[in-house]
């Protein structure tokens, strides 16, 4: 990918791997993780989501 490609492509991360739809829809390739308040563990703590191509395989072009 060139620098121009990384500015126009996003990795889709909503819904997350736990099936929760949240306010962060996509992140630039190379982002390693995200935390969102909508997805919490059984103790009520927001989960940290590692971003891998296997977990979040969909790439879209930014409009």
Please characterize this protein's 3D structure.
The protein is mostly beta strands. Helices cover 10% and strands 35% of the residues. The protein contains 1 helix and 5 strands, in the order αβββββ. The strands form 2 sheets. A 3-stranded antiparallel β-sheet has the order 2-1-5. Strands 3-4 form a two-stranded antiparallel ribbon. A hairpin with a 5-residue loop joins strand 3 and strand 4. The radius of gyration is 12 Å and the shape is elongated.
How would the blueprint of this fold be written?
Layout: H1 3-8, E1 9-12, E2 26-27, E3 33-40, E4 46-50, E5 59-61
Antiparallel strand pairs: 1-2, 1-5, 3-4
Spatial strand arrangement across the major sheet:
2-1-5
Poorly predicted regions are: none
Report the end-to-end length measured between terminal Cα atoms.
18 Å
Instruction: Give me the secondary-structure category.
Output: mainly beta
In terms of DSSP E residues, the strand content is: 25-35%
The dominant shape is elongated
Q: What are the secondary-structure elements, in order, as H or E?
A: HEEEEE
Mean pLDDT: 89
Largest sheet: 3 strands, antiparallel
Helical element count? 1
| Oligomer category | single chain
Helical content stands at under 10%
Rg is 12 Å
Number of strands: 5
Short structural summary:
The protein is mainly β and 63 residues long. 10% of the residues lie in helices and 35% in strands.
Q: Keywords, please?
A:
35% strand; 63 residues; elongated; mainly beta; 3-stranded antiparallel sheet; 10% helix; 1 helix; two-stranded antiparallel sheet
């Amino acid at each position: 990918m060139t620098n121009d490609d990384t500015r126009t492509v996003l990795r889709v991360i909503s819904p997350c791997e736990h099936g929760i739809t949240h306010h962060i829809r996509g992140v630039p390739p190379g982002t390693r993780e995200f935390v969102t308040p909508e997805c919490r563990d059984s103790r009520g703590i927001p989960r940290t989501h590692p971003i891998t191509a296997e977990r979040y395989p969909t790439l879209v072009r930014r409009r």
